[in-house]
Amino acid sequence: MKRKIQTEIDREMVIAQIKRLDLKKTFTVEITEKRVRRTISQNNLYWLWLTCLSFETGNDRMKLHEYFKDEFIPAELFEMFGKVKSLKSTTGLNTVQFKYLLDHVQQFASSELAITLPDPEDHKWEEFYKYYVDKL
Fold first, then answer.
1. Distance separating alpha carbons of residues 136 and 123, to the nearest angstrom
2. Which residue ranges make up each domain of the chain?
């Protein structure tokens, strides 16, 4: 049996299930941390925001992408041919790391550019989405 443990109730239910096991039998229990890669919706949101910023500032989306990677993603250093190089990529980010990037892009847009980038839960989301989705 597999079970997600996200709340205290979930944890208590698993503990109760373990307590009910027949100890005349042998069981294996494995607990692993679920690490999810970034979701398509995070990626779509990011590129929609970049489209908005491109449209509003006149900057190219790919250049904005490079700017934000440089600003908000820690570099992975590697050595090749005797030289130390750095790599910054969004591809390997998990959902938590990608959320960090999104939060910083949203904050930057608001504080530095006076541009509001709404979340899908915001009341202005539908209007924002309809306006910029065709500009992707």
1. 22
2. 40-135
